[in-house]
Amino acid sequence: MSETICPYCRSPFEPEDAVHRCPACGTPHHADCFAENGGCTIFGCTAAPAEEAPISVTPTDLTPSPPAVSNSIYNFGSSATPETPQLPAVAPPPPLPAGSSAPPPPPLLAYQPYAMPPANPYADISYIRPKSRVVFVLLAVFFGAFGAHNFYAGYNKKAVIQLCITLCTCFYASLISWIWAIVEACTVTADDDGVQLT
């Protein structure tokens, strides 16, 4: 009998185990396994316990109920007070052993029942309008020696260098700044922030 196993617990029979044979199909079980299951564990056996009732789910069980919206949030003129939401219940802690001191209570959480949403959450974000490439090129052609095109595109360091070259040499080296500006007008496609010139 040591070669067979109990179909309920899947363990082999030991010589000291109490064996119970199913009265309908004759399959051996441990006596406590047969009692725990309430009958035979073999599918289709007439001595098997009755099946549990199947769970029935209706479409209304699957659809969530809409949340209750208090009109007092949207109707500023109403005198209704908002309901305070119920906090989940917390199970009490287990009793402390004798002779031990109680731990300090946890800190209370600050609770704000309702807060108005901000009027415009994106008010701090400003839209940066892209700069015009035509204006950039025209400034480079006509005022390139003064670095006007670089001031326009946000390249302030280059613009100050071009302006200093022109003014500090009393316009003798302005041709160098102007050629530099023409080269930049042909090669620069984005401003200092990386936004493409349109």
TrEMBL record:
- What's one Pfam family the UniProt record gives for this protein? Prok-RING_1
Q: How does it sit in the membrane?
A: Multi-pass membrane protein
Q: What is this protein called?
A: TM2 domain-containing protein
InterPro entries with a match to the protein in the record: RING_finger_1_prok (IPR039522), TM2 (IPR007829)
Residue ranges with Pro residues bias: 90-102
The lineage's top-level taxon is Bacteria
* Source organism of this protein record: Granulicella arctica
Q: Where is this region: Disordered?
A: 83-102
